[in-house]
């Protein structure tokens, strides 16, 4: 059993082995699900989220544990039940600009898996949108803005966006309204030229 740990801050992933372990749609979904929970979840509970069998989900959880991304959480009372939690509720990827080709390839694979998941979520919304309640349909936004910024201004903008999102993060929000839903907010700020 693992002892409760203090809430971690954002972890930077730079190890190609860890990036490759995470660059799988089910593993991305598992880590995202666990990062939104304080007490963790079992393989069976995670399987419902990722649409796999509990045994396949257990395999993915073990691979994530080998990579140091999840760990066994304290039991909820049933000693037979294995509960998992993330090591950190937030992570970023940075193989480094001057790193070896293997690390760059692993970073690209992970980011491409994350972008593919982001695109599928948008497509899923478009399929469901006509059937959503009017207030959710009206509140949803897909937008693209081209800005003229210096590197310093872009860093400042990124920090401002982080501060704006912080009070609404699923894991840390206390007593949300009963009408609250989980909403994915993807934010990308990349130079175009």
Topology overview:
Elements: E1 11-13, H1 16-22, H2 25-35, E2 41-42, H3 43-50, H4 54-66, E3 70-73, E4 83-86, E5 91-93, H5 101-128, H6 134-139, H7 151-165
Parallel strand pairs: 1-5
Antiparallel strand pairs: 2-4, 3-4
Cα Rg: 18 Å
Quote the distance from N terminus to C terminus.
51 Å
Mean pLDDT: 89
**Widest sheet: strand ordering:** 2-4-3
Write up what this structure looks like:
There is one protein chain. This protein has helices at residues 16-22, 25-35, 43-50, 54-66, 101-128, 134-139, 151-165; strands at 11-13, 41-42, 70-73, 83-86, 91-93. With 193 residues, it is mainly alpha-helical. A 3-stranded antiparallel β-sheet has the order 2-4-3. It has a two-stranded parallel ribbon with strand order 1-5. Helix 2 (25-35) crosses helix 3 and helix 2 crosses helix 4 (54-66). 17% of the residues are buried.
Question: Top keywords for this entry?
Answer:
193 residues, mainly alpha, two-stranded parallel sheet, 5 strands, 46% helix, disordered N terminus
Task: Give a short overview.
The chain is mainly alpha-helical. Helix content is 46%, strand content 8%.
């Amino acid at each position: 059993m693992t002892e409760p740990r203090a809430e971690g801050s954002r972890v930077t992933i730079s190890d190609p082995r860890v990036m490759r372990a995470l660059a799988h749609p089910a593993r991305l979904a598992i880590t995202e699900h666990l990062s939104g929970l304080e007490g963790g979840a079992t393989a069976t509970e995670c399987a419902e989220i990722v649409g796999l069998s509990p045994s396949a989900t257990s395999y993915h959880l073990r691979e994530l544990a080998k990579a140091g991304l999840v760990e066994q959480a304290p039991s909820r009372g049933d000693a037979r039940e294995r509960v998992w939690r993330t090591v950190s509720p937030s992570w970023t990827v940075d193989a480094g600009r001057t790193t070896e080709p293997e690390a760059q390839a692993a970073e690209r694979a992970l980011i491409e898996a994350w972008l593919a998941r982001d695109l599928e979520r948008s497509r899923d919304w478009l399929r469901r949108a006509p059937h959503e309640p009017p207030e959710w349909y009206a509140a949803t936004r897909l937008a693209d803005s081209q800005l003229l910024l210096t590197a310093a201004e872009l860093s400042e903008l990124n920090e401002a966006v982080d501060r704006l999102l912080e009070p609404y993060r699923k894991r840390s929000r206390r007593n949300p309204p009963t009408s609250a839903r989980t909403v994915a907010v993807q934010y990308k700020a990349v130079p175009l030229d």
